[in-house]
Design brief:
Number of strands: 6
Distance between the termini: 18 Å
């Protein structure tokens, strides 16, 4: 995947409401404008990288890109699990991420428990991979220090804005 690392940011929107409630693993969802602008070589699957909410600290993350086969979604999504416990939801905030590497393809599971176990394995894999020096250095990338606040983010309707928000670097 020549597009990795991939830098992007966008406003956190409400997703399907399953991450926290059903899985106990909260996720932050990007709007369609971010999902639709992924480079062609970043296919569906589970990825790891770094994430920052607003102008806050940078944390490890794991991300699902795709259709979530267990739930049979009809809409492609990018769901980011930031490996940190936040005190409250951050809908409407700007989430900045650097997608660093690929863990595995999407797959369906026979049970919710099997899905949760796989996600927890992905989280552990992300934590380990992000300790590799070449991945660790991206945590301090200036991309995160240039993160806009929601009030300064331009509306995602203009093509030039989408490019700026999408590429972020």
């Amino acid at each position: 995947m020549k597009s990795l690392p991939y830098f992007c940011r966008g406003e956190v929107i409400r997703g399907f409401g399953r991450g926290s409630k059903e899985l106990g693993i909260p996720t932050a969802n990007f709007p369609d404008s971010v999902v639709d602008n992924l480079p062609a070589d970043i296919g569906t699957g589970i990825y790891y990288g770094w994430a920052c909410v607003g102008n806050g600290d940078v944390y490890k993350m794991v991300m699902s890109i795709g259709w979530n086969p267990y739930y049979k979604n009809t809409k492609k999504s990018m769901e980011t699990h930031v490996i940190h416990t936040f005190k409250e939801d951050f809908y409407g905030e700007i989430l900045s991420v650097v997608v660093v590497g690929y863990i595995r393809p999407e797959r369906s599971y026979n049970s919710l428990e099997a899905l949760i176990a796989a996600i927890n394995t992905d989280i552990e894999e992300a934590k380990a991979q992000l300790e590799v020096p070449e991945h660790l250095k991206l945590r301090d990338d200036n991309f995160f220090t240039s993160a806009p606040s929601p009030s300064s983010a331009l509306p995602p309707t203009s093509a030039s804005t989408s490019q700026t928000i999408m590429n972020g670097h």
